[in-house]
Structures are given as structure tokens and as C-alpha cells.
Protein: Lipoprotein
Organism: Candidatus Faecenecus gallistercoris
Amino acid sequence: MRKFIGLLLLLVIVTGCTKDQNWMYSLPNEYAIDRSNVETIQLVKEENGEKEVVVSQYITGFALLNDRYVYLQTARNYTNDEDTSTVIVLYYLVDSETDAVTGPFTLDNRDVILENIGVTEAPTLIQTGSMPDGATTY
């Protein structure tokens, strides 16, 4: 019984501690999705050992398109004068070869922007609510 309780406690500690870990998901050409704390998930580019923030908006999902383009879904909380909060979802497209950033844009503009790079279907997003498969902790 003591072993069972000990194993159960260990499991709770291990799974509970991983929720708040910082992680990085590598993308082509030195780009990465970087979760540096619970409030910050952003797109960075690593150059000369330094991280340069490319998109600082909170990233809720991302996809790699045509092995070149990084498609980002971001969310921003706005509070108006009446103290009501609204979440605004915006999108970005980053060309990892030329470093060109398109966005922010709305869902209404997405299809035209994606068609310009040969993408005809809505991307399947990798969600950032928990550490995605393939990400590494730091």
C-alpha cells in the first residue's frame, strides 16, 4: 500500500510539474515556437545564439505549410470602456526563407493569402495549449 501511495504521489508530481514547463518547437530556417512562460507563446528566430521575436502575439496554434511557411493563429484579449473582455483571433503567415511576415489578418482574408502560396485548404493547426509532440523543454 505504501508503494502504491508513493507511486501515485510521484505520478501527481511529475504530471503536475510538466504543465508549466517552457518548451520550444523547432521550425525550418532557425524559426521556433517558444513558450517562455504561461503567458508568452511567440514565434522567434535564433541567430548567433540570440532569440529574436518575430511575432509577439500569444500563439494558440500553428502549422508548417509547404515546408517553408509558418502559419500562426494568435489570440489577444481586449477590454473596452465597459470592462467587457473580447478575444480577437488574428493570423500571420511567415515565409521562413525570406523572413517576410504577412499579417495580422482575419479569417476573412485567410483564403486569399493562402491561395497566393498554393494552399487551397484550411491548415490543420498544432495547438499550443499543452506541449506539442516534437517540442523540447528548456
About this structure: The longest strand covers residues 69-79. The helical segments are 2-17, 107-115. The CA atoms of residues 60 and 129 lie 7 Å apart.
